Structure formats: C-alpha cells, structure tokens
Amino acid sequence: MEFELTPPSSGTLAVLGLIATLLVVTATLFVWITWSASHSSISIRDRSLKIDIPVYGRTIPIANLDLAGAQVLSLDESSDVRTVMRTNGIGLPGYAAGWFKLASGRKALLGVTSGPVLYIPTSEGYSVLLSVKHPDVALQKLRSVAGA
Fold this sequence. Notes:
The protein is α+β, with helices and mostly antiparallel strands. Helices cover about 30% and strands about 35% of the residues. A hairpin with a 2-residue loop joins β1 (about 40-45) and β2 (about 50).
C-alpha cells in the first residue's frame, strides 16, 4: 500500500523559487563579469581617461591625473605598488579589478592582468594601475592630451 506525502506549503515553494532566482542572477553576473573582463579597455577623449572594467569602471578628468608621477612598471619589480590587500574587488589568478591597498599604503583602482602596468597617481586620493597592450604609448598620449 502506498501513501502520498502531504505537499509542501506555498512558503516552501516560494523559498525554493527565491533560491533558484538568486542562482540564475548570480550565474548571469559571473558570465557578465567574465565577458567584461575580456573586453575591458581604456579610452582617452574629452580631456578625460575612461576606464572600462567590470563593476569598477569610471571616468577621470585628465587634470586629476598626476602624469609627472605616472610610469610604466613591472609589479614584480616595484615593491611600492605591490598589492597587499583587496578592499573591494575581484582577485583571481592573473586578473585583479577593483579597489586594492598598495604596499606604499596608498589606495589603488586596478585593472590588471599580466605584463607591465601603467601606474598613474591621481589627485583624488588613489592611484590607478592598468594593464594595457601598449602602456608607453598610452602614457605618451595622456601626456600629449594634458599638454594640449
């Protein structure tokens, strides 16, 4: 003889529906971050630097960049700009985006993958570290726009 169990209450079904919705939203967020990470860029226009990285992108007026202190460097060789703590960001092997604290104690916005990085201090209380394909050319362009 077989007896059916009493069906779950509507509250149980609502909780399961909420959990399923959160899983779908979370999976969608991870797919978007993955796609965005591989399509990140910077652009220089209208006398500003536009940083297009997932979640943490922003536009900084070139006047707020300390281009005299900006440089291209290797994170392996420069101990002052080595990250010591992620404060709000994404930190994966070979990829860092968001807010980090540097060994110098300065706050930094990172969009870093590998290779040399473009290091730019700002007058806004933080530095920017970016992995771009041609960091020397990008820095030269920033300086030429600032001088124009």
